[in-house]
Amino acid sequence: MVARRLSKVYRGGRGVFELDFAVREGEIFGFLGPNGAGKTTTIRALIGLLRPTAGEATIFGLDCWRQSPAVKARVGFVSADPRLYEKMTGAAFLEFMAGFRARGTMDRARAFAREFDLDLRAKIRHLSRGNRRKLLLIQGLMHDAPLLILDEASGGLDPLGQEAFLTHLEDERSRGKTIFLSSHNLAEVERVADRVGIIREGRMVAIEDIEKLRALRARKMEVILERPLNTDFFDGLPGVRLVATKDAGRHVELVVQDNPRELLARLGTAPVLDVVFPAADLESVFIHYYREDDPGVARDLVGAASQ
Question: Which domain holds residue 20?
C-alpha cells in the first residue's frame, strides 16, 4: 500500500492533504488520530470509495480509484460506521457477504464466531453493540484477504473481545498478512503495531517505528525548580531543546537528544528540586504531538529522536 501526495479536500477546506506513506508487506501499521483528524477519509480513498482531489494511492500496484473492484477483491475491510441489514440473522448476513468471495469463506466465518462466542442465529437488530462489532470483524476476517484495513475495528468490544481481536491480528501477521489499523485506542496500537503514522488536521506529522517514538519520549526531561531560571539558562547546551515552561517558570520541560552530562552539570548550579524522566508509553508521545501548535515542531522532534 502506497500513498503519494494523496489529498481529498472538501468544501470548507477540511480533508486530508499530501499524505505520503508506504505500508510494508507483512506489517501491522497503526494509523493514529482523534475523531476528525482524517483517518476515515484516508481509508475511504484507499478502498476506492472517494476519488482523490490530487495525488494517488495504490494497493498491490493497483490504483485505488481507477481499479477499485480489483483492489476490493484483495482487501478485508471493517468500517467504523457500518450499515447492517437489521432483519437478517448474523449467519444470513455473513452468507450474503461470502457470496462475493471464494468458497470456504463460511467455514472460516463459523470458526471465528465460535472463537468470538457469537451466536449467528440471532437477528442483527437484537445484537448488542459489542456483538455487532464482532459480526463486522468476522466479515472482515473471513475472506482471508492478504490485506486488512480496519477502521476503529475494536470499538464496543468488551475486554475479552478486545483480547481475542488483538490475538487474531497477531496471528494474521504471523501468516504474512498486512494490516492497516486505524484507531484512537493507543493501548491496542502499542501492543500490536510495528510502525505508527500520526495524522493531525489532515496531515501526517510522523511515521515511525514504535520503539523510536518511545525513544523520543524517553529523552524528555522535566525539571522542577525552587525558583524560575533566566530564559537563556539552557542556551548553548548541545542536543537540548526547551519545549515548555509551567508554574511561572518553575516547571521546565526539555527534549534531550545527546548525553545529558553537560545539562546535568549546569543544573547542578541551579535551584533544582527534582528531575523526572517520564515513562515512554505511546500515549504520552501521542499527546505530545497533539499539544504542539506547529506540526513542524513534531516533525523536528521525531528527527531528533531517530538520529
Answer: 2-201
d(CA 246, CA 56): 43
* DSSP labels, 133-176: HHHHHHHHHTT--SEEEEESTTTT--HHHHHHHHHHHHHHHHTT
* DSSP-derived 3-state class of residue 116: helix
Looking at the fold, whether 242 and 148 belong to one and the same domain comes out as no
Helix (H, G, I), strand (E, B) or coil at 76: strand
* Residue 134 resides in a domain: yes
Letter for the amino acid at 38?
Answer: G
Q: What's the CA gap between 153 and 149, in Å, rounded?
A: 9
Count structural domains, the chain.
2
Question: Please, is 269 exposed, middle or buried when counting C-beta atoms within 10 Å of its C-beta (0-12, 13-18, 19+)?
Answer: exposed
Let me know whether 100 and 229 are in one domain: no
Quote the CA–CA distance of 227 and 272 in Å, as a whole number.
8
Which triple of cell numbers denotes residue 294? 506547529
What span, in angstroms and rounded, lies between the C-alpha atoms of 110 and 114?
Answer: 6
**Domain membership flag for residue 159:** yes
Looking up residue 59, the CATH number of its domain turns out to be 3.40.50.300
CA dihedral (131, 136, 138, 143) in degrees, to 10, reads 170
| Full-model pTM | 0.75
Cβ-proximal residues to 226 (8 Å cutoff; 6+ apart), any chain: 250, 271, 272, 273
Query: What proportion of the chain, given as a percentage, has pLDDT over 70?
Result: 87
Average pLDDT of the chain?
A: 86
